[in-house]
Amino acid sequence: MKIMLAEISDIPDLVHLLGLLFDQELEFQANPSLQSESLVKIILDPSLGIIFVAKKNAQTIGMVSLLFTQSTALGSRVALLEDLVVSPAFRRNGVGSALISYAISMAKISDCKRITLLTDSSNSVSKKFYLSHHFTQSSMSPYRLLLN
């Protein structure tokens, strides 16, 4: 397995993986055209973020993205870890752990002082996974306002 930066040619595979992820999440729904549009923007503008893909024998088997912003509390760059997903046939084989470790390393190299992520409150498997990778549950609660 190799982990590398996503390229435009990876977008169909990434959209497929996002569809798998959004099928599990309560708040989001797959919309291939919207996901594709956002992936293009991120891949073409590394100041927005970076997307990594895990590949085995040229097959895309997982992905993770880091989106960047500036924290006034820390006075530095921070990252939002988004869209960590592994193809079902490759789960429980260390792919997710490799992707998150790689993302953490790249966030450090990118001078990020914090990584924040969201997971469904009912997803005990993902919560256990993130805790095992030294993430801690924040006392902060997310709120959203959709602007359509």
Total number of helices: 4
The best one-word shape is: globular
How large is the share of residues in beta strands?
Answer: 25-35%
Q: Helix fraction?
A: 25-40%
Biggest sheet overview: 5 strands, mixed
Number of strands: 5
SSE-based structural type: alpha+beta
Encode the helix/strand succession as letters.
EHHEEEHEH
Assembly state (oligomeric): single chain
Euclidean distance between termini CA atoms: 40 Å
Report strand order across the widest sheet.
Answer: 1-2-3-4-5
Arithmetic mean pLDDT? 94
C-alpha Rg (nearest Å): 15 Å
* Residue windows where pLDDT falls under 50 for at least 5 positions: none
Question: How are the secondary structure elements laid out?
Answer:
Layout: E1 2-5, H1 11-24, H2 32-44, E2 49-56, E3 59-71, E4 76-86, H3 95-109, E5 112-117, H4 124-132
Parallel strand pairs: 4-5
Antiparallel strand pairs: 1-2, 2-3, 3-4
Helix pairs in contact: 1-2
Structural summary, described in words:
It is a single chain. With 148 residues, this protein is an alpha+beta fold. The protein contains four helices and five strands. A five-stranded mixed sheet has the order 1-2-3-4-5, sandwiched between helices. Helix 1 crosses helix 2 (32-44). The longest helix has 15 residues, at 95-109. It is globular. The relative contact order is 0.15.
